Amino acid sequence: MDFVTQSVIIGLTEHAPLVLAAIGFALIYRLTGLINVAYSETLTLGAYFAMWLNTTFGLDFYATLIPTAILSGLLSVATYVLIFRPAKHRGVGGLEMIIISFGLSIFMRHGLQFIFGYPVRFFDVPSPDTIWVLGVGVTSFRLVALVSVALLALLLYLFIQRSSYGLQARALSADEQLAKVSGIRPLVVSVMIWFVAGVAGGLAGAFYGVGSSVAPLLGWRQFLFILLVVLVGGAWGLGGVIAVGVATGILLTAMALTFGQILYAQLALIVAFIVLLKWQGRRLTETAKV
Amino acid sequence: MNIDWLDAFLITGLFEVVMIIGLALLLHLQLGLTRIANFGVVGFWGLGMYAFGVLYVKVDWPFGDPWQFLACAALATLVAGLAGVVVGWLIANLDTDGVLVGTLGFATVIAILATTEDGLTGGARGMGGLRIPFDVGTVKEDEFAWLLVLTAVVAVIFLYAWRVHRSPYGRLLIAVGSSEALARSLGKSTFRTKIGLFAVTSGAMGLLGAMNGAMVRYLDVGNLGVEITLATMVGLVLGGSVRVWGAVVGVVLSVGLFDIVISSYLPLPREWYTQTIPVLRQAAFGLALIIVLLFRPLGILGDMRRDKLMRKIHGR
Amino acid sequence: MVADTSAAAAGVAARARPEIHVRGAVKSFSGRVVVDVDDLILGGEPIEGLIGPNGAGKTTLMRLIMHSLPFDRGTVSLRPSAGAEVVLSSLAAHQMARHGVVKSNQVIMDFDKLTIWDSLLLAVAEARYEQPQRVLAEGTVFRRHEEEMRHYLDFFDFEDPCRPALSAGEKKLLDIVRCLLLKPSFLLLDEPTAGLPDDLTEKVMDVVRELASQGTSVVIVEHDLTLIWSLCDRVHFMAEGSVVLAGDPASIRENHTVVEKYLGEGHA
After folding, report:
1. What ipTM does this complex have?
2. Nearest by CB: B289 against A102, A220, A266
3. Which chain A residues touch B280 with a CB distance below 8 Å?
4. Which tens digits make up the pLDDT trace of C178-222?
5. Beta bridge partners of C219
6. Are A90 and B226 inside 8 Å of each other by CB?
7. What is this structure's pTM?
8. Tens digits of per-residue pLDDT, B98-135?
9. Interface contact flag, B105 A228, Cβ < 8 Å
10. Cα–Cα distances in Å, from B82 out to A273, A288, B76?
């Protein structure tokens, strides 16, 4: 079987949720400048909530996605309204903001453990069919996940780049004072951004969960990769985030196939991305203010 | 020495508290003075612990304890210090976002390596064969004596941090944390300063990891998660990240509360200790970070008092 | 004459005072050219002024020289009064001060946690005392430099060096004192008197004159023209990103272009 085809198809289907999660994270990062560590818990919550609806009420997996999206979006908005907005108004610095989001992440993760218990949980779904794409076997769930993610990503991209809300959001991130003068209501636009980001994160979490299992560390395990994708890809805008996300998925798979060990693939990717960031950063920091 | 009044849990709890105080003092130099948010404390600590474990168990040393311990701990410190140089070099010219990625990435790399290199580290099965490098009596007495040794080491770290505040070096760290551009315009190499800081503090974190390895005797990759970093950061931030005493006060009030007061003195049902208390502890730590940074960002002890300090050492 | 030529060939020339040579320097922000200096030598005279209307690119040029902004293209080099030419634009920002090139800041900059003593000690402390292992060096550094620090504290009447600089004026003054303590051979002052009361402005200028008489080249960017005319030995007039005129104060003051573009009718 051709190594490249295999890497591309498995990489795309298995890591499609990473792209979706990265878009959500990038929305908050690009438009408010905040690195939100607690975003990883939006993923975890999405996975848990979809699993709970699925196992408790016997809801079909796809039927769980809509309530999951709404709840994740609301939770994301709640973190903004209850914590990040007041923090900003109190003039909390960028470094402290990251530590706050780190604390929130820890708090939510263990809160979820308290509610849903400690053991690893699973969706109750019929075992998926295997579909052959270019000679590579893919489960139907992952294929559907890929299609849904591609669709959602496209919608989000259009939302940011084309819709009036997207325009307002970009205006707000560029210059808050000017945006206010131009009649943009920052609160409405910010809530919108946080909601959409939460939806993306929650759905990504649900797709991750149905693809394997649901555990308290589900979101946190992806966080570093989401962060790397957004920081490295962010230099070229939202399109860059999507491109780097896709490339990351394919590279992870290709390296996992080569090394026979997913951990080595992750290791290589982390090191490569950090070195890349270092190289990008060298050009950025020259504009110091003296 | 009669230590019947001490139970084994209390010794373990105290060891944890003193060790985290040591880590928090080192983080104080990075985060409090130089304003570098190291989210990978566990990486340097864990690297020291595993480097020590591998050297101690896998290498055939021609001499026994305590020399074997000293040699291995010294090398572990060196390895962690070198890792500090590399990480310091990577993050020295990045902003806070880059520092988060670099340090978190480093901690993840260490956790991955401890798992994959199971020929050396025992991987997910864990690694045994470590011990406290002396024998003064019962296991409890050994552990108590080891706690005293750790306390002495952490006291040295405390004195060092205390001296840093009263030295040109500490002034440089504060200047770099306050305005890098201005520090550079005064001829200070902020790049080299950060690398040097990371070399020293990371090495010391590695030493604390090595000492922990000798205490727990059995290394488990499960300990390389976010818990150590969290406890260190909560302790420091709660007490006051810009004050030397902040690390001590904050860790006693946070880690001390859970690992000593609650585990040793509260009459709670036994089954709570395995799951409920650890989860509650983490949730409370997370909440503490949010509340302190929202309502009292400089922690219990508040801002540093350079004015008092300068009056004391230089006067008018 | 023969000796002179060989010295020049080696890039070493005996000069009265250090010069900064800016060549082909271009900087633009989002397409708009802010600085376009073809060939400029600063520092031939003891004290030189750099004047021009707002937006002429004076501060940007200063920041380019000091490396706090990257060039689009161009080089800056330092010709010290003795020794070989140093290409400043290929140095790291912190190395400028080590070559004696120092600039005071136009906007107020201070270390918010540090006291006045701290600021002074930071400026004078040598790198070898700022190592992680030198945590006992405070007394040494203080004693080595106590005299010069006290000199400036007394001269500028700092009330209490044990507290941070409070007012804007005090911070501005502290910024200048930090620069002076670095013992610059080439000092750039970007609007040094903005925000300072008159008596302190006088004192700052006294120090600058003294420094210049000892061989330091001083370049001042100022809007207070009375000060420029009285202090400077040579004045560069900048407009729209380029230095369009240079000469002694009297000739610049009466120049037709300067009057028209900057001073306004009736000024001369």
Report:
1. 0.93
2. A102
3. 110, 114
4. 999 999 999 999 888 888 888 888 899 999 999 999 889 999 998
5. C48, C188
6. no
7. 0.91
8. 899 999 999 999 999 999 888 888 888 888 889 999 88
9. yes
10. 21, 29, 10
